[in-house]
Design brief:
The protein has a two-stranded antiparallel sheet with strand order 1-2. The protein folds into three domains: about 45-150, Serine Threonine Protein Phosphatase 5, Tetratricopeptide repeat (Alpha Horseshoe); about 165-225; about 260-330, no CATH class. The protein is mainly alpha-helical. The protein starts with 16 loop residues before the first helix and ends with a helix. It contains 14 helices and two strands. It is elongated.
Length: about 325
């Protein structure tokens, strides 16, 4: 029979062991809770942020496709949930404002344009100002629109350089109409109208016309007609023709030199044709009698020749390709 020693009671824990065990247990608990919280946050914030970006991109596609209601809803969803930088959210707010503006919902458009402005859309400040004015005008808030337009309208660069004797003839809000402005407007009129309004008795009538034009111009600006694509295209075409006209006048017509001998030679070469204007007894008119007409025709001829010479020079140095087959197919 084997003898075994009797079982002994477990040894008592060493002093200080239990407090250390409790601290370790608390630390493990805190780590577990932190990990759970992090997992929960990542599971919520990560996908949500991703879904916000998707909503924004999808809204852009819907807007381009003309589905404005759906685009607006997604833009609003993005702005409510997104944690993106203010600059990014400002651009989305601007896009959302444009969606509502195009749909004629001016109050909603105004709200989001103001939101974009408050978010600091610096690169869009000009466009935002124009659209805010447009919304206010469409909503009938004329005074607010006028104040907003005044804020974004800069004084002309030459305002400070006007001479002291350039008298103010009228004011529309902060916009001044001076004597030089009235004179410039007269100079731009066709000769027959210009002569009419140069009469001192007609000056006030013309000033009222200038004031009316300025009021309509401000109204057109507030409603965005100055940004209308058709208006801009026509303006550019008109501007091009004005520049061409100024070029021809200075660089071609202004450089035509007329000598008296040239006029006499031109008269002799065209005596038969020019002399037919006289019906008095079959007597032809002299050079002196026909000199104004001779000079006009000679200048016109020389201008046309100089113009054609210039065109030929420019054609030689230009890379131009013509596609007559496409011209025939074009509508």
């Amino acid at each position: 029979m084997e003898l075994r020693p009797p079982p002994r009671a477990a040894e008592a824990a060493a002093p200080g062991t239990w407090p250390r065990l409790l601290m370790a247990l608390q630390l493990l608990t805190m780590i577990a809770v932190g990990a759970l919280a992090a997992t929960t946050w990542l599971g919520a914030a990560g996908p949500k942020s991703k879904s916000g970006t998707l909503a924004r991109d999808l809204a852009s596609k819907l807007k381009a496709a003309g589905a404005t209601d759906e685009a607006a809803a997604l833009y609003e969803e993005y702005l409510e949930d997104s944690a993106d930088a203010d600059a990014t959210r400002a651009k989305v707010a601007y896009s959302l404002g444009n969606v509502y503006l195009e749909g004629g919902q001016y109050e909603k458009a105004l709200r989001w344009f103001y939101a974009a402005e408050m978010l600091g859309a610096k690169e869009l400040s000009q466009e935002l100002g124009e659209r805010i004015v447009m919304c206010l005008e469409r909503l009938g808030r004329v005074q607010a629109a006028r104040a907003a337009l005044s804020e974004r309208t800069q004084v002309g660069a030459d305002a400070a350089t006007r001479p002291a004797d350039d008298l103010v003839l009228a004011k529309i809000g902060e916009h001044e109409i001076r004597a030089s402005d009235l004179q410039a407007a007269l100079d731009d009129l066709p000769p027959e109208l210009s002569e009419r309004y140069r009469d001192p008795g007609k000056r006030e009538e013309f000033l009222k016309k200038v004031i009316a034009d300025q009021l309509i111009w401000q109204k057109a600006q507030k409603l965005g007609y100055d940004k209308d694509p058709v208006v801009r295209r026509r303006f550019e075409a008109l501007f091009k023709q004005l520049a061409i006209g100024a070029f021809v006048e200075k660089e071609i017509v202004g450089k035509v030199v007329v000598q008296l001998s040239d006029l006499k030679n031109f008269f002799e070469a065209n005596r038969e044709r020019l002399g037919r204007a006289d019906t008095k007894g079959g007597k032809q008119k002299t050079f002196e009698e026909l000199k104004p007409q001779v000079e006009r025709e000679y200048r016109m001829l020389k201008t046309q020749e100089a113009y054609q010479t210039l065109i030929q020079q420019e054609l030689q140095g230009a890379a131009i390709s013509l596609y007559p087959e496409n011209l025939k197919k074009a509508p």
